């Protein structure tokens, strides 16, 4: 019987993990199945552009996985039973249960509402493609009007600047409870603030939003900001599936793993991407990001292949090198950081924008070429998984 590997989620971590495993393990010995709610690969770091109305090419997962023997199941994951090694999924035909020998949990994250009333009912977000398309449709229906972006981190900055540039008829305001882009170095932050001025983005710092309403938000000091569309970009939260699965998780619901990305409670389960809690090489948890998805995917797949083939388990760097931020289509920031996440310099303007576009193209290319285009040998499974550890 073939060793059954199920990959949950086909985002930046899941899609490349599935492709890498399928290209390194022999199909006579291993069956790789990917479960994803949508048939297309979602370029999540570009969803603010979808909302802005930019026309982005779609990439079908079937096309990206062509020639790999991967079985693609378009369905929504509703539950994981880690003790029984089963996954429950739902599609248009009903409910099904899939058994696995090895599970790669890469379901990612969604917008975090932080318990603020009215977010689910009245706010838009750009954490999924359907959500970004709903926001696009809402903005298409406005002739002029006010858009309020809530948040002060990367997603909020990119959403506010791209919406303002692509839809100049809208008045865009960004409200955040602290200082926007507070982690940026002085020169990088100054450049960002100048971009806000150039694009006409109104900035409301130190403004905590306590409730979202149909036509605006309430703030902690009793004030109110009116809006025809409120975009919630105040951070990410993982889906509750992992916490309900029996897997060991952190307080925020992310799966607790060892250095191999293996669950500390269930040895046949690995996690990658936003859903994993792992300590990076600097001693701090890796942040939820596209870059972290790449490093955790590489470590998880390396460990799985080592388990199944009896080969040594290599160690992949778990680092965070910097922030790449778009400020509209032709402006941006690329800030390098040290091991303590302190700025060591920044590239600004059109050069940074070109780097960001290179990242866009490179991430999609990597989904179809997870081995970076190099020839690989599909290796046979030697025995039952040895569960080799990567040195801490």
UniProtKB/TrEMBL annotation:
Cofactor(s) for this UniProt protein: FAD
Pfam families named among the record's database cross-references: Pyr_redox_2 (PF07992)
Any GO BP annotation: aerobic electron transport chain
Annotated FAD/NAD(P)-binding domain residues: 4-284
InterPro entries noted in UniProt: FAD/NAD-bd_sf, FAD/NAD-binding_dom, NADH-Q_oxidoreductase
PANTHER family assigned to the protein according to its UniProt record, in alphabetical order: 64 KDA MITOCHONDRIAL NADH DEHYDROGENASE (EUROFUNG), APOPTOSIS-INDUCING FACTOR 1
Family: Belongs to the NADH dehydrogenase family.
Protein name per UniProt: Oxidoreductase
Native source species: Glycomyces paridis
